[in-house]
Amino acid sequence: MNNVKRPRSASVGLKDRTLEGWFNRETGELATGVPVRASDTVIDVGCGDGGVIGFCASQGAEVIFIDRDKVRLERTEARVAESAARSYRGILSDCDPIPVADATGDLVICTEVLEHVPDPAMFLAELVRITKPGSKLLLTVPDSRSEELVAATAPVEYFQEPNHIRVFSVDDFKSLVLNADLEIESHQFLGCFWSIFWPLSWMTCKPGGGLPIDNDDPIVENWVSLWAHLQRHPDGEKIRNALNQLLPKSQSIVARKPM
Amino acid sequence: MTARTRPYAPDVGMRDRVKEGWCNGKTGQLTEGVVVRSTDTVIDVGCGYGGLIGFCAGQGARTIFIDVDTERLLATENSIKASPAHAYRAIHSDCDPIPLDQEMGDIVICTEVLEHVRDPHRLMSELVRITKPGGKLVITVPDGRAEIFAAATAPDSYFVEPNHIRVFATGELEALIVEAGLAIESEHHTGCFWAFYLPLSWLTARDDDDVPVDNPHPITDHWTRLWQGVQKHPKGEAIREAFNQVLPRTHCIVASKPVST
User: Fold this and answer.
1) What's CA A216's distance to the chain center, in Å?
2) H helices then E strands: how many in chain A?
3) pTM for the full model?
4) Of the candidates B149, B222, B235, which has its C-beta nearest A153's C-beta?
5) Structure ipTM
6) Which of A241, B139, B160, B186 maximizes the CB count within 10 A of its CB?
7) Do A61 and A41 meet the contact criterion of CB atoms below 8 Å apart?
8) CA of A149 to nearest chain B CA: how many angstroms apart?
9) Tens of pLDDT along B91-112?
């Protein structure tokens, strides 16, 4: 009776991402309204394991990716090395300042980073500096509503350096971007699957085991199975769209640097 | 491999309600801060199937319960007949106005009713009129956030008369209560289990189901099992409290009528 494969949270979450308009191979869009062309230079500041810049690389762009974590940077580098990227550069840096020349990027990406830095306004100013005038920035941060849920069960380190030292409400994030003299093109809410997953998984994981992304506790498994089922339901997106408005994991802003 | 019994959502929801402080037989509290004594007169305006007024009757209070639906009123009457209530009255009425004298109730209950009425200010002033000075009112409406979630999948009739014709946004219930001359004593948000269950259930229910509170679909069963697990977990209460802050089903206010107005 154990031949039913347990759905993996990572693949369920990634599937939602694509349903939310990210990583669109047909249109070449990294996210809705953010096309990546082979002629582009794309910079990812805080690339992590490289899921996002990896997509840009596969579109043939020139990619520059930076992280302060050497292991992750190398992982991204290995991934990009085998891609269609026309050229690439991995940079190890804490990005204070960002070791890239002014007006380099046709697209600058910074996902789930601003909540870690001591001065987000200064950090964003650096991101703007390396963006070409008229080009776009794709920025995401955790939404304050999901952070409130996570706080119920996550270990205290979750909200300490080097982790999340700042929580952004919808207005906080918007003002941060507008105060950097950027134009907001879109403000999207996404990832509600994770908003429920993380508090349940933190509650039931073994302490000290790192980020519990693959947790086989029945409480978590019920959630992952529920959501996998929902993704197969013809009207499942109604639930996802509503829950993304009420309890998004992340907010994402597509902004433009004026000419 | 024996068949696993299906979880029963109403039982799971009821367990939360008890944990949230409702109908506490030990302390005699209807909800936190509202003790029901056998000397009290308790009035339930829109009693439905009588879950709350039944608790008050069980405490020996004199109960008066009103509903526009005769079937529900009769069901409540039948359950109260069998209780220790020393006196009761069942009234069939649309409560416009409430067919009771002024200043009768030590406790006046009106749960999940204001979202159904055309003029909530008028009903509120009626509720205030029948409450004794110094008496308490227990008022609940569906939380606006849960209603947004419900709107994703509920049938159109959900937001049409005689169902929910009003959604209370943040701050609106407080304003209604304060404008009626009442003092707010406490406020809480409850029922997050249902805030998730119902949209999932409408998505997957058969068309002819009324409110599908016991839906055998795997999606709803996963949710109910998940929540049973949370209820049994030593840290489950932290989850419930956090979910009740961000996505509650119900917004409850306990108010009191000032002694001199």
Assistant:
1) 24
2) 9, 9
3) 0.92
4) B235
5) 0.91
6) B139
7) yes
8) 5
9) 999 999 999 999 999 999 999 9
